[in-house]
Amino acid sequence: MTAVKFERVGAGVMFSVRFAYNPALVDLVKLIPGHARKWDPTGKVWTVQAHYVHGLAADMRARGCTIIGLDQPEPPTPGGGTDWASALFTRVGKARADSVFRALSKILHPDMETGDSTLQRELLEARERFR
């Protein structure tokens, strides 16, 4: 089991992320948009914008990592309509839901430069609950 240490940097808009080299974990970090992450080869540490750390930590936990320095996030309320994606589908309605999903997937999909694996997963899960 790999330990991953998260530490707030400076004013807290960034976190350092340290772990023993693991190509699968490096690939997870690289799913974060390039503008929101940076590798420091001297310190052997990633720096990631705070907005992305809980999703990254969740992905790392799912791979069996022990996360240090972050509290466990609250689980989303399934079908409760309180998360952003469920609220979006509720607001646009069934007639527009597929079009909205396709449009946002073009932006959020991890293969895109603007991609975000956590947001894409939330969008997909909300769509499945909405159907």
Description of the structure:
It is a single chain. This protein has a five-stranded mixed beta sheet with strand order 3-4-2-1-5, covered by helices on one side. With 131 residues, the protein is of the alpha+beta class. The model has no long low-confidence stretch (mean pLDDT 86). α3 packs across α5. The protein has five helices and five strands. β3 (37-40) and β4 (45-49) form a beta hairpin. It has two domains: 3-68, MutS, DNA mismatch repair protein, domain I; 84-130, no CATH class. It is elongated and about 50 Å long.
What are the defining features of this structure?
single chain; alpha+beta; 2 domains
Main sheet characteristics: 5 strands, mixed
CATH class of the largest domain: Alpha Beta
What gross morphology would you assign?
A: elongated
Radius of gyration: 16 Å
Task: Fill in the CATH topology of the largest domain.
Answer: MutS, DNA mismatch repair protein, domain I
> How many helices?
5
Unreliable parts: none
Strand order of the largest sheet: 3-4-2-1-5
Write the layout of secondary structure elements.
Layout: E1 3-9, E2 14-18, H1 23-29, E3 37-40, E4 45-49, H2 50-62, E5 66-68, H3 84-92, H4 94-108, H5 117-130
Parallel strand pairs: 1-5
Antiparallel strand pairs: 1-2, 2-4, 3-4
Helix pairs in contact: 3-5, 4-5
A few lines on this structure:
With 131 residues, the chain is α+β, with helices and mostly antiparallel strands. The protein is 44% helix and 18% strand.
